[in-house]
Amino acid sequence: MTVGFNPLRWRLETEQKHLIEELERLKTNVRPADETREDSPFGIGEEAATQSSELEKRLALDKRIRDQLAEVEHALRKFEQGTYGLCDACGQPIDPARLEALPQANLCLSCKASQAKTATGQRLVKMVKRAKPSGK
Fold first, then answer.
1. What average pLDDT does this structure show over 71-100?
2. Which end of the chain is more exposed for a tag (fewer CB within 10 A), N or C?
3. Is residue 128 part of a domain?
4. Overall domain count for the chain
C-alpha cells in the first residue's frame, strides 16, 4: 500500500525535521525573566503585561508546532506499520489527492466531514448550555 507514497514519506520526514528545528528555535529565543527593557516609559506594569503576552504567544505557537509534529509522526508510524494511506476511522483508502495536499491526513474526507460535524454540534451544545440561566 505504501510503495507509491515514497515522495510523501520524504515530505513528512522533511516536515518532521523542520518542526523539530522550530521547537528548538522557540526554546532558544526565550527571553530571561529578569531581562527588562530599559527604554520603557511605562515601567514595570507594561513590562509584566508584555512578558505575559509574549509567553501566551510562545505557548500557543509551541502547542501548534507540537500538534503538527504529532500528526506528522503518526503518519510516519503508519508508514512503518504499512497502513499509510488508510483512514484511521473506517480503514478505507484516503484519496491520493488528499494525501498529496496533506501528507499527514489520517482520515478520509467522509470521516473528516463527520468528525467536523460532530465537533461543531458539541460546540453548539456547550454554547446553549452556557447561555441558559442557571436555576431556572
1. 97
2. C
3. no
4. 1
Is 66 a member of any domain?
Answer: yes
- Whole-angstrom Cα distance, residue 35 to residue 30? 11
Q: How far is CA 106 from CA 15, 49, 74, 91, 123, in A?
A: 16, 40, 8, 10, 23
Residue 120 included in any domain: no
pLDDT, one tens digit per residue, over 19-75 is 999 999 988 886 655 555 555 555 566 666 777 888 889 999 999 999 999 999 999
Report the CATH number at residue 7.
1.20.120.910
Q: Of 8, 9, 7, 4, which Cα lies nearest the Cα of 80?
A: 9
Angle made by CA atoms 36, 47, 55, in degrees to the nearest 5:
95
pTM of the model: 0.72
Q: Is 133 left (phi over 0), alpha (psi -120 to 50) or beta?
A: beta
